[in-house]
Amino acid sequence: MDRCALKSNKINQILATLLLAGSFCLAWGKADAALDLQTMVVNGDSAVDFGNVKSLEENGDPAHDSSVRQVRLVVTSDLGRPYTIRQNVDEEPVNEAGTQVPAEAIRFTVEVEDGQGLVRTSDHEPLTAGMQEIYVSDDNEPRTVLLITYDFLVPAGQKAGRYHGMVTYRADAV
Amino acid sequence: MLKRILLFLMTVVMTLPLKLFADADTKTLPLTFYIQPVTAVRAEGAAGSASVELGRVLPGVDQQAEALKVTIRTNSEQRYKIFHRYLSSITSAGGGQMPEGGLRFMVSGGSAGGQSAVQSWTEVPEGRAEIFNSGDSGGADSFTLNYLVSGKKPLEAGDYFGQVRLEIEQN
Question: Which pTM was predicted?
């Protein structure tokens, strides 16, 4: 066997070893996926959609419309450590023209449906921009189910249009 | 050299999964809603009804009618124009006609930045006439519409009545 063939053989061995090591690590990683967060919009699809609402009546009088949506968070953990759940809103929802809806217009309440821990927010708290801790689990809590209720009280006269925003939920081991 | 490369690659491969399966998880949901656009124009005379009393016109004396307050309520951010249109010309029960130049009108500026398109006494045209322009971003506003009946024009005696309509057009 010449030197070139020897070298090629060695490279093949190295690649095979890398592949094996990589597969092992991935399998190990999946088996130990320690903290998992799932979100479910109650009676909805993949968005917190308050639907079509009105801020003025047809005759121009102020309307007092409202809409409620709920999101269920399910966190599972085998870390044996407590974890926090946080909610982040980059900015208040805006329409095509860039008009924001006031933070106080959307309020949320967190309820614990399953698990032991502490809700860190008060009821009907305004959905303000920024990261906010909403829950801390007890030690070694394997499963937490939170129900977050969002109440949208449409401000009278609020500018028309399609409003968009994003809500991010994050679970972190402490 | 080859061993060093191997060592480096092994380190990368071992580190990647650890990063992928850190002790945190994140999910993002869109938040959305739609607010229906509404625009309503309301016109009120002094008595609170949608009518203007032109009053008693005496020969040789111009008679200014009570002001009509026009209010635009909207949640739209579009610009708009208000137009004045005769639905039926002003006539008396006995068939008397308002003479040419017999009725003039004038429109004030808006309380929220809109501009009058009829800033001085102008004869009310038969057709459609632009009378008011909103500010750049539209929005709620209000203005007053004043009418003046000329007593200097020959006018048959009698009770006169007509109908006008205010129309809004959004850009």
Answer: 0.75
